[in-house]
Specification:
Layout lengths: L8 E10 L9 E7 L19 E3 L1 H11 L3 E5 L9 H10 L3 E6 L13 E5 L14 H5 L5 E6 L2 H13 L2 H4 L2 E6 L6 H11 L4 E2 L3 H5 L8
The chain binds iron/sulfur cluster.
Length: 220
């Protein structure tokens, strides 16, 4: 499934929006969404990125990004690390002075990414159906600029995430520990109450783009 051509990337969409998640939530951000994913999370909201994609070279992508005149850029998916061209594109964007976020599902080694990129590793909780696919050595590679994210669908997911956070002292080692509730499965108020009860050093994140726009709108 990996695509090892570094000169051609398969891109689902390029768009400018407000960053909806992470510690940069609320900032204008340019998004590069890669096509293709090696997982099938039960609650996935980007299944439209599983297949296809428009073939583009790193220079063609850079041309679009440059026209946005926005310092913050995020590479997301799908799963970007399935395409070997992700690394040279990331290097190009960093060379141009962008603050670069790369969101990955954490199933492939993240040390292929250049220093300077801020990695947001989505650690798949049991209710996603994909937690057995996590590549755990990635946890040791995270640094104080990186962020980790847990998407929670239940109390069981919350307790699992809380244990992982404590076991790997993620709240001390990473720039942010982000907890999101799956819409329709877990109420954010309940999640907030659990976090307060446990004095968990994590950040509750609401998906800002789904509050501003409709939850199924694309390109936002
Ligand atoms: S990793 Fe992301 S894109 Fe892939 S199935 Fe899970 S939620 Fe969807």
């Amino acid at each position: 499934m990996a695509i090892n051509n570094v000169d051609a990337l398969y891109i689902n969409e390029l768009f400018l929006s407000i960053q909806g998640e992470s510690s940069r939530a609320g900032l204008p951000c340019g998004f590069i969404r890669f096509a293709g994913c090696n997982l099938r999370c039960v609650w996935c909201d980007t299944a439209y990125a599983f297949e296809g994609g428009k073939e583009m070279s790193p220079d063609e992508i850079l041309k679009v990004v440059t026209q946005w005149h926005i310092p913050l850029v995020e590479i997301t998916g799908g799963e970007p690390l399935l395409q070997f061209g992700c690394t040279p594109l990331a290097e190009l964007l960093l060379e141009k002075g962008h603050t670069l976020l790369i969101e990955t599902n954490g199933t492939l080694p993240i040390d292929v990414l250049p220093e300077g990129a801020i990695r947001i590793m989505d650690i798949k909780c049991p209710d996603s159906g994909m937690s057995d696919k996590i590549y755990w050595p990635n946890i040791e590679l995270l640094n104080c600029r990186d962020e980790v994210k847990f998407v929670l669908a239940s109390r069981g997911d919350y307790e699992w995430a809380r244990d992982v956070i404590h076991r790997y002292t993620l709240e001390k080692r990473c720039a942010a520990v982000l907890l999101s509730a799956v819409t329709g499965d877990l109420d954010a108020a309940r999640l907030a109450a659990w976090m307060l009860e446990d004095q968990l050093e994590a950040r509750l994140q609401l998906q800002l783009h789904k509050i501003i726009w409709s939850s199924d709108q694309r390109g936002v």
